[in-house]
Amino acid sequence: MKNQTTSSKTENAMKHLFWKCKEKENETIWDDVRDNNIKQIREDIKQLGSWPLADSDWNPDSFDLNGLLQKIPSITGQRKLDISFGIFQVSMPGARKLFIEPTYETYDVEIIEEVLTDVLGTPPGKSEVQDIDFFGHELKKIASYKAQNITIPIDDYSKVKSAIPDVDIDKLLQQLLSNNKAKWDKIKNQIYELNGFHQKAKLIQQLIRDHKRSAANYLIYKYAHTAYSYLSKIETKCHETVIENLPFPSIRVFVRNHFDKNAMKDVDTLVEDMKTNYIDLIENSEFLTEKTKKGAIQKMKSMKKTIAYPEEFEASGALDSIFNLNGTLTVNEIISDELGHDVAWRIFKKMDLSQEKKIIGFEDYSIEKLYFQIGATNYCAPRPQHTLREQLEDPHSTLSFRVNGVFSNKKEFAETFNSPVGSPMNPVKNFNAYGIIFKESYSENGWSG
Fold first, then answer.
1. What pTM was computed for the model?
2. What pLDDT, in 10s, does the model give residues 68-84?
């Protein structure tokens, strides 16, 4: 794609981002590029309206909140599915629904000073920095309030708009659509709120009314901060930068140019067979009402299919070779975990726990089983979102291995849970932290050493 012309707006955006990224890799022109980009940020900020901290003649009566919000939306979130307007954000996680909830950003004072110094060309005053810091933390307080309701459906969407009349939410959302009228007619009936937004919106509006100057400083700074963050020297490869910031166009290009279209027909047939069998299952159900059956079948028939898969993943063992981690990078941490557990277990066994109270729901568990259960919760977390390349270069073990990998090497674990020899949690060959004899492999978590 790098050297081919295209009429696609998304592909041209990908190419533009790629080559801008490549400019950053060129040390000889990086400084000039950075200076030009800062100048561009200054020009862009002028289009947002008057910035109080840079305009001594700023008048609160001329503060156009809606005009400013229209110009500063930014894409946020790990999956790039959230759009922030500074005081609230909208997310589209799927199922053609749109959610509105409070949001905020707080910044380190040192970072605020750095950004303002570069963007303004002169160090900011202390009060200007405090102004931005104050408003961000006030928004954080509001967002942290416990709401009475978690989600309110469309029937009460009018409450959301009436709670913050100074903000034209409908107009802000419509501007995000490429075909405003047609798409808005579909989306406007699928809008929901999260985290009690209609309750918190009243507080947000009052905060803005009471502190217009702070609000203007904060919102324009948020735009400047977002733009400035892209000026830093990047360490990732440029194609990864494109994929991270433009995920959907990247997937589209990959699918269009690399997927085996013939193989996808077989998968399409399989999906249709699955849908047919699900419908038969629903129709023959004896406990579902006719209304429920009708609704479920309609949903099944309306379900959209998205079929795509890399052909190379079909080969047996292909994933094993791709997701195999090099244990030599994590050896120090593994040894530390092993030794730490040995010490903790010795201390644990010397303690008199006979009078400890039982935990509700775990009355039949021995104290030894609870020891391992509680130890495992220390590393309980969602799957990491970083790339495979980052994981392969990470000096830290995966969280799952720090539980299963360590416990599988422990005789006391096998005895506590009666794990048979040769099972994943009691392998024949393991390693001794004191003799530094490493297990030949641990296929379940992809570690080898």
1. 0.51
2. 999 998 877 655 678 89
